[in-house]
Design brief:
The protein has 435 residues and is of the alpha/beta class. The protein folds into 2 domains: 209 residues, UDP-n-acetylglucosamine1-carboxyvinyl-transferase, Chain (Alpha-beta prism), CATH 3.65.10.10; 210 residues, UDP-n-acetylglucosamine1-carboxyvinyl-transferase, Chain (Alpha-beta prism). It is globular and about 60 Å long. The chain binds shikimate-3-phosphate and phosphoenolpyruvate. The site of shikimate-3-phosphate has 12 residues, from helix 3 and helix 5.
């Protein structure tokens, strides 16, 4: 039997939902604005629903994850109104109540952040989500709520939670090595618990720490006292949450593949509005692209990345910015030597098993890839077209687009799945390339 991968697929045979990733036949020169941050939008929505007055979000992200968050909060009683062509959302907090059914889709922020909020609702709330979401870990959040006296039936999706609408709060001990979102979830709602909340992590290191720093930052900005002075322990004092009037920063993780296009084509891409101070993990893109050999400049106009077309191999720990891993792996497939991605064992439980997905799909294009205990070892080889499977994972679509810049006949399967965080990704991508 031949070990050759399947034949390249051509436009004529494209199945519904498949997308022929455009090859950049020239250096890409573009200014690419990107929509608001998923992580900030969904945190602001939660805080606004728990706040003491009406809030306003400017430039929120409209995507599957944020729409699910809006719908879930509305199901619990919160008023949310979209204005000015969806560039402004007004949030009117109301007493939270059940019964309600919450669809989490595949959104980690919805499935993790909302159970501690639902514990503040009077009644029974049922949670479910996509088939793939049922495989994503949730136990530590549900066990923490149980230990605070909330009745929880189930250990992951689907599950049911029943509360009187009051939570005593106190100290919870959890293992958050599977996801930083377990900690963020409990902190976000904790100010509304009678005694606040103290979260103590016990276990292997917590991944994605910038995301917890973001949670602490948005809580403090809303007037909540948070003590994060000790490693692996966070204390949120009981207090009211001030209403918000905030503009959402652009999503820096979603900007990353566009910036990578400058590196890979020897072009120049600017993302306007890149914040000079931010807790977004996507800000690591600056350092990562520099390590790959790009020239990176943060100025008044935004972040500008210039490439030479040459990509240097890297050895990188992505534990803090694991959501960038799929695009980092795609870039590494063009490097001038073997690269190592480390510290990302937990992404086996992201939207899909990302280590397996990347290893399988990069191998099918011709790369030599080995899955390690906590990452990937990538040895670049000449690449050829193929169908690039995406496993319901928006970041696999982005990785496929990056690979397609230099690989003809690369067909990204189910490209619509990118709507999780960026519904118009393929249109923006084509526009950037001038397709
Ligand atoms: O809190 C958040 O907004 C997120 C936290 C991180 O999750 P993990 O800690 O599970 O990696 C990150 O990967 C995810 O994309 C968004
Ligand atoms: C891991 C991710 O998402 P989620 O918020 O669903 O965990 C991601 O966006 O890469």
């Amino acid at each position: 039997m031949s070990s050759e991968p399947p034949h390249p697929t051509h436009t004529a045979t494209l199945a519904t939902g498949d997308w022929l990733a455009p090859v950049a036949g020239h250096p890409v020169h573009a200014v690419v604005p990107v929509p608001g941050s998923k992580s900030l939008t969904n945190r602001f929505l939660v805080l606004a629903a728990l706040a003491q007055g009406s809030s306003r979000l400017s430039r929120p992200l409209r995507s599957r994850d944020s729409t699910l968050m809006c719908e879930a909060l509305q199901a619990l009683g919160t008023g949310i109104e979209s204005r000015s062509d969806d560039t402004e959302w007004l949030i009117e907090p109301q007493p939270l109540h059940g019964p309600a059914a919450i669809d989490c889709g595949l959104a980690g922020t919805v499935m993790r952040f909302l159970p501690p909020v639902a514990a503040l609702a009077d009644g029974t709330i049922r949670f479910d989500g996509d088939e793939a979401a049922r495989r994503r870990p949730l136990g530590p959040v549900l066990e923490a709520l149980s230990s605070l006296g909330v009745s929880v039936r189930g250990t992951g999706l689907p599950f049911e939670l029943t509360s009187s609408g009051r939570v005593s709060g106190g100290t919870v001990h959890i293992d958050a090595s599977g996801s930083s979102q377990f900690v963020s979830a409990l902190l976000l709602a904790g100010a509304r618990y009678d005694d606040g909340i103290t979260v103590v992590h016990e276990g292997k290191p917590v991944p994605s720490l910038p995301h917890i720093a973001m949670t602490v930052e948005v809580l403090r900005d809303a007037g909540v006292l948070v003590d994060d002075s000790e490693a692996n322990r966070w204390r949120v004092e009981p207090s009211q949450i001030h209403a918000l009037d905030v503009e959402v920063e652009p999503d820096l993780s979603n900007a990353f593949p566009f910036l990578a296009a400058a590196l890979l084509t020897g072009g120049e891409v600017t993302v306007p509005g890149w914040p000079h101070f931010t807790t977004q993990a996507g800000d690591h893109a600056r350092d990562i692209l520099q390590q790959f050999g790009a020239d990176v400049a943060l100025g008044r106009d935004g972040l500008t990345v210039r490439g030479t077309g040459r990509v240097e191999a890297i050895d990188i720990d992505l534990h803090e910015a694991s959501e960038l891993s799929p695009v980092v792996a795609a870039i590494a497939a063009f490097a001038d030597g073997p690269s190592h991605l480390r510290g990302i064992g937990h992404i086996r439980f992201h939207e899909t098993d990302r280590l397996a997905a990347l290893a399988t799909e990069l191998t099918a294009l011709g790369t030599e890839v080995a899955e390690t205990e906590d990452g990937l070892a990538i040895r670049p080889k000449p690449l050829h077209g193929n169908v690039f499977q995406t496993y319901g994972d928006h970041r696999m679509v982005m990785a496929g687009a990056v690979l397609g810049l230099r690989v003809p006949d690369l067909v990204v399967h189910d490209a619509g799945t990118v709507a999780k965080t960026m519904p118009d990704f393929t249109a923006r991508w084509a526009h950037m390339i001038g397709d």
